[in-house]
Amino acid sequence: MLIPCPYCGTRPVEEFTFLGDAKPKRPETNDPSSMEQWYDYVYLRDNPRGDYDEYVHHSGGCRQWIVLTRNTATHDVKSSVPARDYQK
Amino acid sequence: LKYSFLSIVKNAFSGHKNWQPAWRAPEPKPDYDIVIVGGGGHGLATAYYLAKEHGLRNIAVLEKGWLGSGNIGRNTTIIRSNYMLPGNNPFYELSMKLWEGLEQDFNFNAMVSQRGVLNLCHTDAQRDAFARRGNAMRIDGVDAELLDREAVREMYPYFDYDNARFPIKGGLLQRRGGTVRHDAVAWGYARGADMRGVDVIQNCEVKGITVEKGRVVGVETSRGSIRCKKLALAAAGHSSEVAAMAGLKLPIESHVLQAFVSEGLKPFIDGVVTFGAGHFYISQSDKGGLVFGGDLDGYNSYARRGSLPMIEHVVEGGIAMIPALSRIRLLRSWGGVMDMSMDGSPIIDKTSVNGLYLNAGWCYGGFKATPASGYCFAHLIARDQPHATAAAYRLDRFRRGYMIDEKGQGATPNLH
Lengths: 88, 416
What we know:
The structure holds two protein chains of two kinds. Chain A has one helix and six strands; from the N terminus they run βββαβββ. By secondary structure, chain A is mostly beta strands.
């Protein structure tokens, strides 16, 4: 699998470390009433078969965080953007 | 008894063309008491124990491919009960006891071979951790022996004991652990369930789950709608997809795990051995091929294939443990889809939808659990309360904060 890094261009998969789903939103508050939101954020996943946005670290390269949109059924990569530019 | 020496001789004379199929190929009926989604090891075992232990007959197992086409036929066949945590090990020990009596129980040769599972340790800290785990196992009545380096050397003289980075310091041995012929497990359970009246329906993919007033009433399949009173999901790597049809979101991610077989060799390694400094486990099949595996590829995937870097990584771990492996050719590798849960432990529980039961989250340790998983899931479905040894595998344990995190990795599915 080849991964397009927005900074370095196309690089082999072994240079990257996968963190996981980029969709879950961290709750804004620690208030006990937000526990359901925290439960959802920490533990529950859509786990789609198809397009999937994921945080990936170019740990063996430029060490930047990127968000990759990749198809989990075919491994085709649709897009990759710097993590700071990713819109949830 | 269908198979005997006489039947082999008799069928040889007719060119082996007159063997009866081991199970029927029934058309789906419009209505069942219990429908099980997934004709893998766990689904078939569940159907078998529902019929055998609870006397239920009006059951269908729906399999989207053919029997044994999923992870039950794509694993490294290891069985063991060397877990540490209280919620885990009694369950895996129940599984081990069921393995020990399985062939007599379903009257099928599954080649259960208790050849011993040895985990190697490479540091003093790791030896301490193994001593602790061995003691925890013995508290649960499971056999465990802590071996020193010389005892390991006596068993396997050709390991690399003086590896500069990962010297072998000893190991934790469970002699009752071993291997089982995985396909035969699926076939034995399928035949046993079929003989008791369960409809095992292949090439029947579930496309939707019908819920009325919070209760499951049936499934839509590629072979028409089927109504049911209880629906049991045992869809392994595809659990999230199936559960989503009933509006559930699971604490599960699907990842790819690869396994490997080498060319056939003369007897080389007579037990199961795991490398403690990396993730590598190896045994030798009765055909002579070395069967081994390692870590997940690390990214979410529903594709049943991995990539080359992980193959290299696994083989490097193997060669660090057994230098002689460097001269052996890899025959084939394959990938399976794993239902990685958020704490590395499985889920056998009811769900928020009435009549919907879930069996999932086996990560890549589901094969050894097959008998107990089926046994406990059948208990749950038949009696609506969990079996004592599986009582900790609740779906809501994540919400309540009662994780069973054997590895201590936290909510990181790709690291368990």
